[in-house]
Amino acid sequence: LDHSIEEKLASHVKEVQLFISKNPKYNDDVAFFIDMKIHSGKNRFFIYDLKNNKLIDQGLVAHGSGSETGTEGELKFSNTNNSLSTSLGKYCIGTSYNGRFGKAYKLYGLDTTNSNAFERNIVLHKYSKVPYNEQDESICNSLGCPMVHEKFFERIEKIVDNSGKNILLEIYY
C-alpha cells in the first residue's frame, strides 16, 4: 500500500477500534474498510486484523453509479433513496439472505451519512462482472452497494459467517 493510503487506513482503524471498545457487541478481531478515494480498478476493500494491527486481505469493490461526478477521480456520496450513490460511514454487517446476486449481507448504517442504508437495500454482495485483479480501467458500477468479485466474496463470507459478533464495515473518502 502507498504510504498516504496506509496512513489514512490506520487512522480509520483507530477510530473503529475506539468505537468497538465502547460497543462490545461488535467483533473486535476484524473489520472491513473501503477507501473510496482509491481508483475503482485498484484494491480498495481492506480486511483488517484489529488485534495484530495488520492488513490481511484486499480486493476490488464497485461504487454506486450515482456517485459518479463525470470528473475522473472525484466521487459524490448520498444517503437518499434512489440516488444510486454510495454512502459514507460505518455499517454493521447483518445477516445474509439470498437475493438477485445470490448470497448477500444486509447492511445497517450507523452514522447520519448512511442511516438509510437498510431502507435503500444497500447490501454487501458479489457480482460476476467485477474483475478479480487490479486494472487501469474503472470497473463497473453498482446501484449504491459495495459489490465485489465472487472469489473475494467467498473470503469475506468465511470471515462474516464464522464471526460470533457483527463485523463493522467503514466506507470513507
Could you outline the blueprint of secondary structure elements for this entry?
Blueprint lengths: L2 H20 L7 E6 L9 E5 L4 E6 L29 E11 L2 E8 L13 E4 L20 E2 L1 H12 L6 E5 L1
Parallel strand pairs: 1-8, 6-7
Antiparallel strand pairs: 1-2, 2-3, 4-5, 4-8, 5-6
Rg over alpha carbons: 15 Å
What structural category do the secondary elements indicate? alpha+beta
Q: For the residues shown, what is the average pLDDT?
A: 97
Q: Low-confidence parts, pLDDT < 50 over ≥5 residues?
A: none
Rounded to the nearest angstrom, the distance between the terminal CA atoms is 16 Å
Number of helices: 2
List keywords for this structure.
eight-stranded mixed beta sheet; alpha+beta; 27% strand; 173 residues; 8 strands; single chain
Describe the overall structure.
It is a single chain. This protein has helices spanning 3-22, 150-161; strands at residues 30-35, 45-49, 54-59, 89-99, 102-109, 123-126, 147-148, 168-172. The radius of gyration is 15 Å and the shape is globular. It has 173 residues and is an alpha+beta fold. The protein has an 8-stranded mixed sheet with strand order 3-2-1-8-4-5-6-7. The chain has 2 helices and 8 strands.
Outline:
The chain is an alpha+beta fold and 173 residues long. The protein is built from 2 helices and 8 strands; from the N terminus they run H-E-E-E-E-E-E-E-H-E.
